[in-house]
Amino acid sequence: MTGPRLVSILRQGSHLIASVHTALDDTQMTAFQHDLVDRIGRDRSRGVVIDVAALDVLDSFATRTLRTIAEVARLRGAVTVVVGIQPDVAFAMVSLGMDTGALHTALDLEEGLALLDRIAGGRRPAVGARGGPA
Questions:
Q1: Which tens digits make up the pLDDT trace of 72-103?
Q2: Phi, psi of 25 (to 5 degrees)
Q3: 7-114: CATH homologous superfamily?
Q4: What number of CA atoms fall less than 13 Å from residue 49's CA on the CB side?
């Protein structure tokens, strides 16, 4: 018997929406990273929104993992936006000096998708040898 899903990854057009439903330990966070990166390639995604609104803590490992996901996604041709960081979480991250690097963020899912459309929407698909999408 399985429990409730900790994370869901849904496809919406050329984007993936990954929602983290509860706090993840380091092993679960690493598994999430691998699953999401795999889906980016399998679904040929151009953008990824990671919704962390359900989290009341983002520790240094989770923050570093989100940065890693964004960088790997970028190298695979997708833009990543993290949405839903709670105000107390943002204050704690700044107070602790956590570096989010060049991680794109937005207030909520709607704004995250709009940001992806602005950033990734103008990208053209790669062209294969016969002139069609690769």
A1: 999 999 999 999 999 999 999 999 888 888 89
A2: -80, 175
A3: STAS domain (3.30.750.24)
A4: 26
Over the chain, what HEC string results?
CCCCCCEEEEEECCEEEEEECCCCCHHHHHHHHHHHHHHHHHCCCCEEEEECCCCCCCCHHHHHHHHHHHHHHHHCCCEEEEECCCHHHHHHHHHCCCCCCCCEEECCHHHHHHHHHHHHCCCCCCECCCCCEC
Contact 66, 29 (CB under 8 A): no
Let me know how long the chain is: 134
What is the value of pTM for the model shown? 0.86
Give CA–CA dist 22/111, Å, rounded. Answer: 22
Domain extents for the chain? 7-114
